[in-house]
Specification:
By secondary structure, the chain is an alpha/beta fold. The chain folds into two domains: 196 residues, Glycogen Phosphorylase B (Rossmann fold, 3-Layer(aba) Sandwich); 158 residues, 3-Layer(aba) Sandwich (Rossmann fold). The chain is built from 14 helices and 13 strands. It has a seven-stranded parallel sheet with strand order 3-2-1-4-5-6-7, sandwiched between helices. Strand 5, helix 4 and strand 6 form a beta-alpha-beta unit. Helix 3 crosses helix 4. It is globular, with a radius of gyration of 22 Å. The two termini are 27 Å apart. It holds the Pfam family Glyco_trans_1_4. It comes from Bosea lupini. Keywords: Transferase.
């Protein structure tokens, strides 16, 4: 194996908030730069001025390049890739990967498509459809790898877009929290507390969740629901809360940096998402020992909730089944805590210090370097193609 580092560039496309993809990229690249400094030289190109990044020290190379428009963005991305002598360029999502690959025609660089969401639901405009077709016929056959956040997501993408390119599951890291992971005290003498965390967006199904909670309240009166997040749908969510007569039982809370406080004060986690790529919010709820009620949407929840001790999956659209699961956890909120430690231990497999090894091995394999010189970590690396046994 050549005595060199694999030079990797992750690109973070322009966004308004430092949230899912942005936070995952920062976490993974920080861990890669520290744990695999002998094998990997990691850089991240940020195209938005996140306060969490600008002026803040990072163990990887931070490249800041803010554009004045789409054409300027493509020019800046091409210039960065051309000048960096990178072995691999990792880009999230189908559209961004197709656009940046096309912008770099004539530059010999190997790209990796890193799926985060649900590609089946992202072709919602003519432009998106055109880029997906460019991916199918032009870009995909020339990629070094396809990474994904869940096995089902990768299986679906491979079925919809057949290719000979290797697909590899690299799990998103679940944050550890500074505060000790608590197991809530028995819900005696107070209402049972349900909670959900996420962007206030159509994808997350807050309208579905609120209607389910309203139906639940007709069966059980002593419960509260906390909606933790922010986003463009907040005015509509507030209006629906008033319309359903839930103002005294539902609260909207903002914890932009960490959901530790609301999760530690809750009893049951709810997910009304219409679709996911994975679901870090579900994983973080399990980190706090909470049982989860979630719709079995594509993709993610069924790859996480694999045991009844972790929670209950309900077919997407089955509001009555969702309410039934809520009633179960309400009525058994104390006895269900016997599984809290199991949930905490289970989700630890997705901690950053564990999943970083799968990411590293996937990158090194894409660069033709199956072995690593970081011997302590090599034994624990387990990055296999989706569906492999």
């Amino acid at each position: 194996m050549p005595d060199r580092k694999t030079r990797v560039l992750y690109i973070v496309p322009p966004t308004r908030s430092f949230a899912g993809i942005e936070r995952v990229t920062d976490s993974i690249c920080s861990a890669l730069a520290i744990e695999y400094q002998i094998d990997l030289d990691v850089s991240v190109l940020y195209t938005s001025p996140f306060e969490q990044i600008v002026g803040q020290p990072r163990p990887y190379h931070v490249i800041l390049s803010f554009s004045d428009g789409r054409l300027d963005l493509l020019r800046r991305v091409r210039k960065t890739i051309a000048g960096g002598r990178f072995d691999l360029v990792v880009v999230p999502q189908v559209e961004a990967t197709a656009v940046f690959w096309l912008a770099c025609l004539g530059i010999r660089r190997r790209f990796i498509l890193y799926l985060h969401g649900n590609p089946r639901l992202e072709r919602r405009s003519f432009k998106a459809s055109a880029l997906f077709e460019a991916m199918r016929f032009l870009v995909l056959p020339r990629l070094a790898r396809v990474f994904g956040t869940s096995p089902r997501q990768l299986d679906a993408f491979r079925s919809d877009y057949p290719s000979k390119v290797e697909h590899v599951w690299v799990a998103n890291p679940v944050r550890s929290f500074d505060t000790p992971v608590p197991v809530p005290a028995p819900a005696i003498g107070r209402p049972v507390r349900f909670v959900t965390v996420g962007r206030f967006a159509y994808q997350k199904g807050y309208d579905i969740l609120l209607r389910a909670f309203a139906a639940f309240c007709e069966k059980r009166g002593d419960a509260e629901l906390a909606l933790v997040g922010y986003g463009e749908e907040e005015p509509a969510i507030r209006s629906l809360i008033d319309e359903l007569g839930l103002a005294g039982r539902v609260t909207i809370q903002h914890y932009p940096d960490s959901p530790a406080i609301p999760l530690s004060n809750s009893d049951v986690y709810l997910s009304g998402a219409r679709w996911e790529g994975w679901s870090l919010a579900i994983c973080e709820a399990l980190r706090f020992g909470l049982p989860v009620v979630a719709f079995d949407c594509e993709f993610g929840p069924s790859d996480i909730i694999v045991d009844d001790r972790l929670g209950r999956l309900v077919p997407l659209g089955d509001t009555a089944g969702f309410v039934k699961a809520m009633v179960h956890y309400h009525d058994h909120v104390v006895s269900e805590r016997r599984h809290a430690q199991y949930r905490i231990d289970y989700i630890d497999r997705f901690s950053l210090d564990k999943v970083v090894h799968a990411h590293a091995r996937a990158l090194l394999a894409a660069d033709g370097r199956v072995e690593t010189r970081t011997s302590a970590a090599a034994d624990s690396l387990r990055a296999e193609p989706a569906g492999a046994s």
